[in-house]
Specification:
Layout lengths: L1 H27 L14 H6 L2 H8 L6 E5 L7 H8 L4 E6 L2 H13 L5 E5 L12 E7 L8 H11 E12 L8 H10 L2 E9 L2 E8 L7
Length: 215
């Protein structure tokens, strides 16, 4: 009985902590803290949002130059980098130092040499203009207080014809509806380039217009 009581108590503490973070995250747009990064490593996450599906929807392929915003613990960083191969490269931009360290450790453990992990906020960090073929955010956009500035800067960092890919999962505290995402992306000078999935789990791609193309 004592073991059961301890188990129930610990479960209650964990559940209470998760609920408190969910409330705070929605109210103040807080990113997922490193202390609960284990959720991203659970089998439940992979079951709900399979990595191969996300990569296929984004159009990750060998040779691309890619920018990942908000890699967290790097659970997508490694498979993306592997798919890019030796002719592609990936920059992973992470706001939280603790998360950046975990991403770096995962990259090193995987023996990857085509990844650069950078610390910084997408709204203020230095982003190379017209450099990337693909930039992506997976359940990250809603964590950014100034989404319009972030999207405008990402649009500028893309090559003409480059893709900004945004994946959202219903149930995430920062879930963004497609209509709102599309409106903001159009305002940033990006045009819809395909959407896959349903409102529960979707990936929406937006393209930086090629010079002379009509928006």
């Amino acid at each position: 009985m004592k073991v059961l009581r301890i188990g129930f108590t610990m479960s209650g503490v964990v559940l209470g902590g998760l609920l408190a973070w969910r409330y705070a995250a929605r109210r103040w747009r807080l990113p997922c803290p490193a202390t609960i990064g284990w959720i991203l490593e659970s089998g439940l996450r992979e079951w709900a949002t399979p990595t191969p599906i996300i990569l296929a929807r984004m159009g990750v392929r060998p040779g691309l130059r890619v920018l990942e915003v908000g890699p967290g613990i790097g659970y997508l960083t490694v498979p993306v980098a592997r798919r890019l191969g030796s002719t592609g490269d990936l920059v992973a931009l992470e706001l939280q130092p603790a998360m950046a360290r975990r991403t770096q450790a995962r990259v090193v453990a995987a023996g990857l040499t085509n990844v650069a992990v950078r610390g910084g906020d997408v709204t203020t960090a230095q982003l190379e203009p017209a450099t990337y073929d693909l930039a992506f955010l997976v359940t990250v956009l809603g964590e950014i207080p100034d989404q319009d500035r972030a999207l405008a800067r990402l649009a500028t960092s893309l090559k003409p014809g480059g893709i900004l890919s945004i994946t959202e999962v219903f149930g995430d505290p920062h879930y963004q509806r497609y209509a709102a995402v599309a409106r903001r992306c159009r305002a940033a000078g990006l045009v819809p380039a395909g959407r896959a999935g349903s409102w529960r789990f979707y990936t929406a791609n937006f393209q930086r217009a090629v010079s002379g193309a009509r928006l």
